[in-house]
Amino acid sequence: MERKLTRFSFDNRSICSIILSMTDKDAFDFIVIGGGVVGSAIARELARYDARIAVIEKNPDVVDETSGRNSGVIHGGFAYDTGSLKARFCVEGNRMMDSLASELSVPFRRTGKVLVGNTEEDRKSLERTMEQGAANGASGLRMIDGRELHEIVPAVLGSFALLSSSSGIIDPFLLTIHLAENAAANGVHYYLSHKVMSIRKEKDGHIVDTDKGSFRTRWVINSAGLGAKDVSEMLGFSSYRVIGSKGNYLVLDKTMGALLPLPVYPVPSNTYMGIHVTPTIDGNVTVGPDASPTMDFSYYGVPQEKIELLENSAGDLWPHIHRKNLIRTFSGILPKLVDENGAIQDFRIEIDDRIDSRAVNLIGIESPGLTSCVPIARHVVSLIAERETLRDSSSFNPCHPRPIRFSELSEEEKDDLIRKDLAWGRIVCSCEMVSEREILDAIANPLGVRTMTGIKYRTRSMMGLCQSGFCQMRIEQLLERSGLDADEVEYMYPGSWVVKGKVRA
Ligand SMILES: Cc1cc2nc3c(=O)[nH]c(=O)nc-3n(C[C@H](O)[C@H](O)[C@H](O)COP(=O)(O)OP(=O)(O)OC[C@H]3O[C@@H](n4cnc5c(N)ncnc54)[C@H](O)[C@@H]3O)c2cc1C
Predict the structure, then answer these.
(1) pLDDT tens-digit profile of 6-60?
(2) Of 5, 365, 37, 392, which is closest to residue 183 (Cα–Cα)?
(3) d(Cα 410, Cα 384) in Å, to the nearest integer?
(4) What's the CA-to-centroid distance between 410 and ligand 1, angstroms?
(5) What is the set of active-site residues?
(6) Which region holds residue 108: left if phi is over 0, alpha if psi is between -120 and 50, else beta?
(7) CA of 63 to the centre of ligand 1 (A)
């Protein structure tokens, strides 16, 4: 396909003024602001076309905000208003997840999920949810009685349920990371630890100013999650109302995963799924989230009273929640777009020609944003394609190689690898059986991420029972061996230094 416009088709005057401070390496057709699951899916979809693309991300990794702080459930698409983008993209995202997960080598299991009820009112509500699901095109929905429910999840406390057999669980970290790494492998430039501070409009494009320098681009795509309202104001969009909804979680150890074959939810409202229990793809269980409004988009602490609330509330659904199995807490914040009355709105994905005909603005990308990431990205590309012709890239490769997980290999396979490279035989994380080779391969990731959590989310080191007591300093040493000074190693966010001075060998 031919594009209507040639690349970097700024008029001469604007080019002259920009060129003083920027080189061609800082000039793009598309800049995506925000490298989370949605921004990285957009970058990867754009990489199917012949264009220069960059992602600008303020954090040192792509999973440090909402995309790494959620339930990891691939939703069925029944809980959203019929006709909404949330319903449409969720159903589409659910349908494509087997092929997407296989292309990107992301662990995904179609476990199904149950929404459990006890009263006549619950039954009516679940039947309405099922009808809404059918209208949305969600598949595999049916009411089941108590006997069938207890065959599926013996311990659950409930009289009947709505079963959604198309729902599933995924590794949300690897979905985001592999989308980003596959985008990078297809030529997308990632600028991590670059915060967008302002955006200047030029006649035929934009200058995006970050805290580390400026970039020239024809198109800007605002996929900044919790920061999207600020970025949309930089672009000149009117002031949207976005409120945070904070959800806290408990993580239970792997002995509990065996007791929970699929996510168990209470009866939902159409704005909140309720506190649920969910097996993770690696065999832990998460309990949560609750939902409290917040305007502090950077506080992820989990207060003690929330731990008690989650234990008690989820205990009414699934009685296996004991403090002795609790290994960690975490939280996430949903950016909810609301109207002047506080009513929660649909995803907003728009190009407004009166404001900026080369800016795509995404606001209120809350749940089910993980499930919907690729349909959202394709919608963004279709909006762009209405305005200019995109030419297919001849070299796009949708596949991400599957990293080897030492713990999943047979004894013979392990022996083979160790014979070739002793680093396979040096176990760094003994809870999750992660080898030094896996850590070194993760350190060599194509995005150049060098944080402790960057290694954790790529390998599962530090995620086991001891929660990093054994391996954290070994990983820090390996990061040093890769060329970082000890006091350059950050835990997760900019400035979260792990040590001061040198770590003793
Ligand atoms: C508690 C909870 C549970 C959820 N459960 C599910 C679920 O089970 N299933 C499901 O489908 N969805 C779920 N979701 C929703 C899903 O996680 C999100 O919709 C999705 O992760 C949003 O992705 P994103 O890329 O838009 O946002 P993010 O992952 O937040 O990415 C946005 C990025 O923009 C960056 N950024 C912001 N401002 C700037 C700036 N000025 N300059 C540069 N970069 C910037 C941020 O650092 C961030 O990395 C849940 C969400 C929460 C909070």
Answers:
(1) 333 333 333 333 333 466 667 999 999 999 999 999 999 999 999 999 999 999 9
(2) 37
(3) 48
(4) 36
(5) 75
(6) beta
(7) 8
167 lines ligand 1 (CB under 6 A): no
Task: Give 136's contacts (C-beta < 8 A, 6+ positions apart).
Answer: 77, 78, 80, 82, 87, 88, 90, 91
Distances (CA, A) of 15 to 202, 204, 354: 9, 10, 23
Indicate if ligand 1 lies below 6 Å from the C-beta of 367. Answer: yes
User: Pick from 159, 138, 137, 162: which is nearest to 150 by CA?
Assistant: 159
What is the best residue among 57, 66, 337 to mutate for testing ligand 1's pocket, by most ligand atoms within 8 Å of CB? 66
If you search the block for the tokens 């080598």, which residue do you land on? 105
Give the residue among 219, 223, 198, 195 at the shortest CA–CA distance from 209.
Answer: 198
Work out the number of other CB atoms within 10 angstroms of the CB of residue 53.
25
For residues 229 and 66, the answer to whether their CB atoms sit within 8 Å is: no
CB 359 within 8 A of CB 204: no
* The domain defined by 406-488 carries CATH number 1.10.10: yes
Residue 328 and residue 464: Cα distance in Å, rounded? 10
CA atoms within 13 A on the CB side of 197: 9
Model confidence over 175-221: pLDDT tens digits? 999 999 999 999 999 999 999 999 999 988 999 999 999 999 999 99
Cβ burial, residue 412 (10 Å; 0-12/13-18/19+): exposed
Domain limits, the chain: 406-488
Two tokens, residue 250: 């408990």
d(CA 301, CA 303): 6
Residue type, 264: V
pTM of the full structure: 0.94
Indicate if ligand 1 lies below 6 Å from the C-beta of 222: no
DSSP-assigned letters across all residues of 279-302: E-TTS-EEEE---EEES-TT----
- Interacting residues of 291 by C-beta distance below 8 A, sequence separation 6+: 245, 246, 247, 272, 334
Q: Which two tokens stand for residue 378?
A: 């394709």
